[in-house]
């Protein structure tokens, strides 16, 4: 477009910057899926979407509740008498019954070991909106937040793009299963200080996206001690709090601050119903702060990203139904555990290991042994083969700012079991083909990957599965 070059003069820096991340090469995977989406009958040789951290395993339980509770919706004969009240409601404090129900649910999602004050619940447009809102409250343009890497890539968009806050990675290594060490924290902090960058806080996702692991008590205590000593903020994105399907159980930062002495004004939690309830389209984000000024400021800011009153009304009923929430959390965790085991066992049988994990909607898959060369170019090469030949859209570790090439995040809960089986069969053929090449050439088989793997998913019998086709998502 001719006008594009002139845009930098007439539009804002935010509008013309690339910080959103949509133009990154990683979107090639999404485009490949979008152009050729897998469908068991209509397009059995298409690309399977394994780059989307979505929970589609438990919607039937929610649907059943909705059918049994028509009064909870203003769009039914039984609930329409509330229509006018709800349609007019726009107070940025939110419906009191919604805040009460969310606070209760947040406590349950953390094993009932902590409770949350409804007065500190602030709404945001998903965790996306809540995270950005917090950055606006805690940091000025140019200030920085430390973030342990590998980290959720959209943190760049959510935390940096419009706020102009910087992110400084804290390097975590595979040699200790990507634990966050005090040394790594200190190193990142000092590096920033040396170049006069003001570090305002540390932000992390616990449970981790992309690792699928939960932080243990000693690590959490060391994080609190670190931020307390430096007098910087700690933001814990606990969006996967109830997406924990086996032990060790999840420990929230809210539990730790009951045990460790620290300045609570520095502690903030981000939550959402996008993962734990599988409702990303509802855009229910929560900012929970122990700092009164942050609560009050972010509440004013929340006008830019409120949860619709209709959604609040429905969820107020749903989340205050103890029988439902107990059943949902239990059954959802059971289904996730089953899916996780099916997928990781399948990979294991082919000699592919994943980082041991107990949470999340994905595995952190170790393909280092398949790299042509131990570099990020090598990783990108392998990734492109996986997309174009194996026809799976997985996400390379470099897109999560992992410091070691060869790791890939693979999502397993956004499809049905049959589609997972198709994906596993494709991976198996890929691995077997690779080994055949190795035997024949007696060279590293990876060298011939592109040439020799005339692999085509077309030759495999892929039936009976279904996979949703979604546009490029807002969060992954
Ligand atoms: C760690 C993390 N934070 C935030 C988000 C965004 O969530 P939401 O859909 O609630 O905006 C995601 C989504 O993948 C995530 O993984």
Automatic annotation (TrEMBL):
Per UniProt, the enzyme's principal EC class comes to lyase
Instruction: Check the record and name the SUPFAM superfamilies matching this protein.
Output: PLP-dependent transferases
**Keywords assigned by UniProt?**
Lyase, Pyridoxal phosphate
Pfam annotation, one family: Aminotran_1_2
Q: Where are the transmembrane segments?
A: none
EC number of this enzyme: 4.4.1.14
In the UniProt record, does the keyword RNA-binding occur? Answer: no
Domain (Aminotransferase class I/classII large): give its ranges. Answer: 48-427
**What's a single GO MF annotation on this record?**
1-aminocyclopropane-1-carboxylate synthase activity
Similarity comment text for this entry:
Belongs to the class-I pyridoxal-phosphate-dependent aminotransferase family.
This protein's name: Acetyl-coenzyme A synthetase 2
Organism, scientific name: Castilleja foliolosa
């Amino acid at each position: 477009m001719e006008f594009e070059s002139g845009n930098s003069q007439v539009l804002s820096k935010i509008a013309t910057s690339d910080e959103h991340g949509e133009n990154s090469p990683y979107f090639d995977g999404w485009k490949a899926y979008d152009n050729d989406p897998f469908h068991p009958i209509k397009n059995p040789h298409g690309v399977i979407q394994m780059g989307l951290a979505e929970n589609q395993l438990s919607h039937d339980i929610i649907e059943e509740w909705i059918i049994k509770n028509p009064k909870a919706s203003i769009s039914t004969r039984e609930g329409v008498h509330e229509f006018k009240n709800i349609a007019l409601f726009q107070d940025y404090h939110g419906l009191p019954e919604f805040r009460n129900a969310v606070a209760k649910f947040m406590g349950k999602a953390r094993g009932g070991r902590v409770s949350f004050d409804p007065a500190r619940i602030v709404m945001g447009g998903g965790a996306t909106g809540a995270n950005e809102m917090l950055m606006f409250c805690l940091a000025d343009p140019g200030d920085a937040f430390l973030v342990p890497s590998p980290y959720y890539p959209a943190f760049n968009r959510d935390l940096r793009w419009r706020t102009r806050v910087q992110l400084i990675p804290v390097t975590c290594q595979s040699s200790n299963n990507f634990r966050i060490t005090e040394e790594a924290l200190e190193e990142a902090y000092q590096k920033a200080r040396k170049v006069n960058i003001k570090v305002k806080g540390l932000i992390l996702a616990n449970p981790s996206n992309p690792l699928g692991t939960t932080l243990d008590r000693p690590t959490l205590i060391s994080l609190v001690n670190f931020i307390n000593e430096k007098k910087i903020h700690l933001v814990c994105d606990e969006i996967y709090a109830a997406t924990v399907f086996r032990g060790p159980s999840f420990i929230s930062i809210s539990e730790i601050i009951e045990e460790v002495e620290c300045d609570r004004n520095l502690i903030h939690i981000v939550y959402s119903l996008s993962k734990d309830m599988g409702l990303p389209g509802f855009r229910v984000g929560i900012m929970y702060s122990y700092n009164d000024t942050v609560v009050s400021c972010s509440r004013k800011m929340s006008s830019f990203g409120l949860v619709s009153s209709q959604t609040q009304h429905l969820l107020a009923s749903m989340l205050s139904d103890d029988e439902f929430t107990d059943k949902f959390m239990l059954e959802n965790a059971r289904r996730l555990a089953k899916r996780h085991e099916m997928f990781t066992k399948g990979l294991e049988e082919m000699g592919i290991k994943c980082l041991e994990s107990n949470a999340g909607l994905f595995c952190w898959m170790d393909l280092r042994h398949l790299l042509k060369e131990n570099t990020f170019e090598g990783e990108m090469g392998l990734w492109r083969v996986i997309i174009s030949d194996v026809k799976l859209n997985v996400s390379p570790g470099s897109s999560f700012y992992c410091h070691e090439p060869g790791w890939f995040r693979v999502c397993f809960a956004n499809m049905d079991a049959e589609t997972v089986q198709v994906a596993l069969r494709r991976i198996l053929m890929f691995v077997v083909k690779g080994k055949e090449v190795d035997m024949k050439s007696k060279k590293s088989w990876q060298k011939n990957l592109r040439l020799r793997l005339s692999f085509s998913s077309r030759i495999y019998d892929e039936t009976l599965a279904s996979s949703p086709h979604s546009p490029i998502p807002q969060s992954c």
